[in-house]
Amino acid sequence: GLASEVRIVEVGPRDGLQNEKNHVSTGLKVDLVNKLTAAGCDYIEAGAFVSPKAVPRMADSKHVFQQIERSNAVTYAALTPNLKGFETAMEVQADEVAVFTAASEAFNKANIRCSIEESIARFDPVFEAAKPGGVKVRGYVSCIAGCPYQGWVDPAKVREVTQLLLEKGCYEVSLGDTIGVGTPGSIAAVLKEVLETVQPGSIALHLHDTYGQALANILVGLQHGIRTFDASVAGLGGCPYAPGASGNVATEDVVYMLDGLGIKTGISLDELVKVGNFISTELGRMNGSKVGRAVASS
Ligand code: HMG
Ligand code: MG
């Protein structure tokens, strides 16, 4: 059977906002995180400590972390591509950090300006620095089902990079379909390969919904024993280095599906829908969640 409970990693404040064309105020980011906390999200990726030249929208992540109202029940995490990022994350008491690389050399070069091997070497000091304080490190592997630059990606490469990150010290690796091209067939093939050597409890799925396949792919993940899914309120987001890719699967849509399956998330759908409508209005965007739109007009 399927899991009775799953963990949702809310990436809206980070993945959702990192690619916004227009300026997003620190105050709005703080409001968003606080509202997600109130809706029952227990894991929120609240920012990224990356080069402000590379991703200007995340340049104020330090202030976001300093200004949010924290709940003890919530993990507030940040992306940290290197030691510099980790040190900043610790200055503002991020609860967890995430390192990120890819199964595609071409994407990694564009995104973090180094090879896969070099990126993992840059993470070594992060793992070292995280150890004494027991800070948990999450990992991301992008382009698991296709790459905007090189096209096809070998599932064996996904497994190899995932395994390496786990050996180095990640407690979990989130498999990213960065451009949302995966289908239940190709995602099942990647999972089958990865699960040859990795436990499903160490894997999360991070699915952008560009081609509308994400919910179906989450169901495939559940059938393979995956119990952690990344999602973004109102389906916000995209990666600046994945042109044309749309946001993550909308958290509202995932929670609605899981509620229907009787799988607990701890998140209140009603409250979450309000948060999705709030942020969409503030950003002047159409709400990217079908559930959010349906509830709002019902
Ligand atoms: P680099 O140029 O190779 O590194 O960039 P560098 O060490 O030479 O540093 C270049 C400049 O960045 C320097 O500043 C550094 O001080 C600064 P300058 O001297 O030019 O003024 N710098 C930093 N500033 C703040 N915080 C830091 C930091 N590190 C260096 N931590 C680097 C390499 C990784 C830094 C850069 O390419 C970068 O920051 N890239 C950002 C990539 C990114 O954030 N992408 C989006 C997130 S990933 C994603 O969306 C995918 C995901 O959602 C999963 C999926 O969907 O598949 C996670
Ligand atoms: Mg992403």
UniProtKB/TrEMBL annotation:
Catalysed transformations (reactions): (3S)-3-hydroxy-3-methylglutaryl-CoA = acetoacetate + acetyl-CoA
- Please give the start and end residues of each transmembrane region: none
Limits of the Pyruvate carboxyltransferase domain: 6-273
CDD domains reported in the protein's UniProt record? DRE_TIM_HMGL
- Enzyme Commission (EC) number: 4.1.3.4
Molecular function terms in GO for this entry? Answer: hydroxymethylglutaryl-CoA lyase activity; metal ion binding
- What are the alphabetically sorted keywords of the record? Lyase, Metal-binding
InterPro entries the UniProt entry points to? Aldolase_TIM (IPR013785), HMG_CoA_lyase_AS (IPR000138), HMGL (IPR043594), PYR_CT (IPR000891)
> Which pathway features in its UniProt record?
Metabolic intermediate metabolism; (S)-3-hydroxy-3-methylglutaryl-CoA degradation; acetoacetate from (S)-3-hydroxy-3-methylglutaryl-CoA: step 1/1
Task: Please list the coiled coil stretches.
Answer: none
Can you cite a GO biological process for this protein? ketone body biosynthetic process
Q: Does the entry feature the keyword Nucleotide-binding, yes or no?
A: no
Q: Which family does it belong to?
A: Belongs to the HMG-CoA lyase family.
Q: What is this protein called?
A: hydroxymethylglutaryl-CoA lyase
Lineage here is: Eukaryota, Metazoa, Chordata, Tunicata, Appendicularia
